[in-house]
Design a protein that fits this description.
The structure is a single chain. By secondary structure, the protein is an alpha/beta fold. 40% of the residues lie in helices and 16% in strands. It has a domain of 156 residues: D-Maltodextrin-Binding Protein, domain 2 (3-Layer(aba) Sandwich). It is built from 13 helices and 11 strands. A hairpin with a 3-residue loop joins strand 4 and strand 5. The two termini are 40 Å apart.
């Protein structure tokens, strides 16, 4: 519990001691274990029942996320149905807007966020390095594959794929690009919309993984195509449907899924043959969280089969749990040529500042 407020630690220790004195049996296997690292204090464990009791006393949860607002609100309702004694609050924004807000709260010593979920593992790697993430174990963590978690710190709450999309009323399947390199055809100059990698974790993932695949020259050539940049996939999709662009040259797959399957919009996804960028969105708890035990219940619910099926249903995102299938009408991840981080996520973070600077030189030269 590095960096946890002393008052929180003290309250937790009081509850632990009261339980021990009362003769409560030790926690069973698979229950949440919280390691207390307050100097001079012995290591203690909390059972699931104790976590619930402490969460009930806290009574609140503040969730910061980049999930679309409507779907995030519905997800919180499902969590609250399980734990009705927790009053939930939602703070929603783009990945990097949320990160900047969290950083401001930390710098000012006034952290409001309890649980955090955005589409960029590098954010969590950085927060972990700075000691700003709570260290704990969750029962549902064992269902998350090792490559998609940092044990005891953060776990993938969802996986998001990036695709190309076109308007079926304006373009036939045969005319649509089949690969990322097809977007570099001069005929698409000025006709491509991209989500801005300055604002979104999925857009940065596309930039990162395609640069890994094709080198920096790919993005120099893309910049020469004079694409239009949008703050969100939602804005990109709306521009596509209005005919302001001919192609969404990088859009999260679940937005296309929602538009076509739920809303009946004439939009079609293309899963590029040369690779589909995929980024994970972890969930974690801030070490200075005002309501850490409510956040533990929320994180465990988020990783559970029930929570993961809710994310799939509400958002159309993928789960990395093997017992949760893909969204209806979508290919399995195993059927796609996935482009994702192959080494430690620390490398993804280490290169981020330099790569974003290079990106800005191409697409936001005025920012210098």
């Amino acid at each position: 519990m590095a960096n946890a407020p002393r008052a929180v630690v003290g309250a937790m220790m009081t509850v632990i001691l009261a339980v021990i004195v009362g003769g409560c049996p030790p926690p069973g296997p698979g229950e949440i274990r919280v390691t207390v690292t307050e100097p001079g204090q012995p290591e203690k464990e909390l059972s699931q029942e104790q976590i619930i009791a402490l969460a009930r006393r806290e009574g609140e949860l503040w969730w910061y996320t980049s999930l679309p607002r409507a779907q995030a609100s519905e997800f919180l309702k499902r969590f609250q149905a399980r734990y009705p004694f927790i009053n939930t609050h939602l703070v929603r924004g783009s990945t990097f807007d949320i990160v900047r807000r969290v950083d401001r709260e930390i710098a000012q010593g006034q952290v409001q966020a309890d649980a955090l979920h955005v589409l960029d593992p590098a954010v969590f790697v950085d927060l972990r390095r700075r000691g700003e993430l709570y260290v704990y174990d969750l029962p549902q963590a064992r269902f998350i594959p090792p490559e998609y978690r940092e044990p005891g710190v953060w776990w993938a709450m969802r996986a998001v794929t990036v695709c190309i999309a076109y308007n079926k009323e304006r373009m036939s399947p045969g005319e649509a690009p089949a690969t990322w390199t097809h977007l570099l055809d001069p005929k698409w100059r000025g006709e491509i919309g991209l989500k801005d990698a300055q604002t979104g974790g999925s857009a940065y993932a596309q930039y990162y993984f395609l640069r890994e695949e094709y080198g920096a020259s790919y993005w120099r050539r893309m910049a020469a195509q004079e694409p239009r940049l949008f703050k969100s996939s939602k804005d990109t999709l709306e521009a596509l449907l209005r005919g302001e662009i001919e192609l969404a040259g990088g859009i999260v797959g679940y937005r296309v899924y929602q538009a076509s399957e739920r809303d009946g919009k004439p939009v079609q996804a293309v899963w590029p043959k040369d690779g589909v960028p995929m980024i994970i969105g972890p969930v974690a708890i801030l070490s200075r969280a005002p309501h850490p035990h409510a956040a533990m219940l929320f994180a465990d619910f988020s990783l559970s089969r029930e929570g993961q099926e809710a994310i799939r249903e509400l958002v159309g995102a993928y789960s990395v749990r093997e017992d949760v299938g893909p969204p209806p009408g979508r290919p399995r991840l195993s059927d796609l040529h996935i482009l994702t981080q192959e080494g430690p996520w620390e490398e993804y973070r280490t290169r981020q500042d330099g790569l974003q600077t290079a990106y800005n030189r191409l697409f936001h030269p005025e920012s210098e």
